[in-house]
Write a structure and sequence with these properties.
- The two termini are 16 Å apart.
- Helices cover 51% and strands 0% of the residues.
- The protein has 510 residues and is mainly alpha-helical.
- The protein contains 31 helices and no strands.
Length: 510
């Protein structure tokens, strides 16, 4: 029996959704090689299997679980204090490849990773490097960011000072008077972002990659604004709340239409400027002015901007408002960052004649079910795509339609709980093999295409639970279908064990 056949059996059983814990535990460890690691990382696992992985002495086994996107993240809590810094680092970094929408970690894991005093006994990573992995992973929810200023651990309050503009005035005042001297020091060192003179002094030392962020969010002195006009980097000023009114007027008459279009959506435009931009000779400028009728808010401005700048095949991260999103600081408010438009405004967007506004509504996961039903039938394909990718109540039929029409979105759609796995057999003859593979796994399919020219279609067909037991045995002996057949949920458990006996023995493991 060939080694490739043995390896196919191991991979198939490892991802068999009907495999019980005692079968899967046999694959936890060094004996199964890369197959065991792929299983630990790449599928949902019963609690006994998770427990076995958490107790495993090999760090490479535990770190594979650390990147698992399917297991309840609360079950991963022990990995946040794992002796190995590599394990902690993999947990902090999140799944790879990173999905468009990342599931947040529980607070206790985040606290453990951010307040650790060392990077683990293997000394491969520092505590700071692990925290940096977590920062860039998008696994910290907005609720945690909002709570850091009031957390008990000083390290978390220090981190709150680094999001100074997102804090309320009361939170800033408390941090400036914090009982911990390090917190006070960091708070005082963060006040420059709202001090025009401080920003002007700091800007020369800011790296080129950070300059647009500073110019687009911080308080600006008149001299710095003039410098921007003189040197050319005025675009970030168009969305900066702190940009003075006279500078906004100059930007509204800037020769670059891109600059005028961005200014046309500002909530603080005067009526005269808004009317002027509404009659601008450039269509994009007129459209921007039309999409943002008064009264408008900065949250609405950013909601439109995030959607309007991306095409139908955009696979940018789906980010929770307030987590790595475009900053919308409101120094006048007592509520910190204003990042979410009102539900009434979103409802109006859903019923708007403007496709861009309907796309904005479709991108919001909290949109009411009755509006979801309407947008699912929208004439604009981009609206339907936004809904399919962002809303948990998007109908399965819509998810399937987008899957077939837009290959770029397939990895994300396949991970959604509502994505249909049945009722797709009519696509078995589709010219796209990815679509045929989906159809080949439909249990209602009378004759799964186990001889399809595409290997992925053959694997999916061999895993179809509608296959008879005799057919499965023949497919297990065929290198082209063995993996799919071993993953077939109708495979009897004793047969799974028998395949592992032979597969592990063939790999030299027993």
């Amino acid at each position: 029996m060939s080694d490739s056949l043995h390896a196919s059996w191991l991979r198939g059983v490892a991802f068999n959704t009907a495999a019980p814990s005692d079968v899967l535990i046999r694959l936890v460890g060094e004996a199964s090689g890369e197959t065991g690691l792929l299983m630990c990382e790449g599928r949902d696992l019963p609690d006994p299997v998770v427990d076995a992985i958490l107790r495993h002495p090999a760090a490479r086994i535990r770190r594979a679980l650390a990147r698992n996107r399917y297991v309840d993240p609360a079950r991963l809590t022990p990995l946040a204090t794992d002796p190995s810094g590599i394990v902690r680092g993999w947990l902090a970094g999140g799944p790879r490849p990173r999905p468009r929408k990342v599931r947040p970690l529980p607070d206790d894991i985040i606290i453990s990773l951010l307040t650790a005093e060392d990077g683990g006994e293997d000394r491969m990573l520092t505590a700071g490097e692990i925290a940096a992995e977590l920062d860039s992973s998008r696994q910290i929810p907005a609720s945690f960011h909002r709570s850091m200023a009031g957390r008990e651990h000083p390290a978390l309050r220090i981190r709150a000072t680094r999001r100074w503009q997102s804090l309320t005035p009361a939170e800033r005042a408390r941090l400036l008077e914090d009982p911990d001297p390090e917190v006070r020091k960091e708070a005082q060192g963060s006040t420059w972002v709202l001090d025009p003179a401080g920003v002007e002094a700091r800007l020369p030392s800011v790296g080129s990659l950070s300059r647009p962020y500073v110019l687009g969010t911080c308080a600006l002195s008149p001299a710095l604004v003039e410098q921007c006009f003189a040197d050319g980097p005025v675009y970030p000023l168009t969305w900066n709340r702190h940009t003075p009114a006279d500078a906004v007027a100059r930007l509204a008459r800037h020769p670059d239409a891109k600059v005028r279009a961005s200014v046309a959506a500002r909530p603080d435009l005067t009526p005269d400027l808004a009317a002027e931009l509404g009659d601008d000779p450039d269509e994009d400028v007129r459209t921007a002015a039309r999409l943002h009728p008064f009264p408008r808010t900065w949250a609405e401005y950013w909601a439109v901007r995030r959607v309007d700048q991306h095409g139908s095949d955009c696979t940018c991260p789906i980010i929770e408002p307030g987590v790595g999103a475009d900053p919308v600081p409101d120094p006048e408010a007592d509520t910190g960052w204003d990042t979410e438009p009102s539900s009434d405004w979103l409802a109006a967007c859903a019923e708007s004649e403007e496709p861009v506004l309907r796309r904005v509504a479709a991108s919001r996961p909290g949109l009411p079910a009755e509006l979801v039903a309407v947008l699912a039938l929208d004439d604009d394909e981009a609206v339907r795509i936004q809904l399919a990718c962002n809303h948990p109540l998007a109908p399965p039929r819509l998810l399937l339609d987008v899957f077939v029409a837009r290959p770029a979105h397939r990895p994300h759609l396949l991970a959604l709980p509502a994505f249909p796995r049945t009722g797709v057999s009519h696509l078995v003859d589709h010219p796209d093999p990815e679509v045929r593979a989906l159809a080949a796994a439909d249990p209602a399919l009378a004759h799964p295409p186990v001889r399809d020219p595409d290997p992925a279609v053959r694997r999916a067909a061999a895993a179809n639970p509608g296959l008879a037991a005799e057919a499965l045995e023949a497919l297990l002996a065929d290198p082209g279908t063995a993996e799919g057949a071993a993953a077939n949920p109708s495979l009897p458990v004793p047969r799974m064990h028998a395949l592992l006996d032979r597969g592990l023995r063939g790999a030299g493991a027993v």
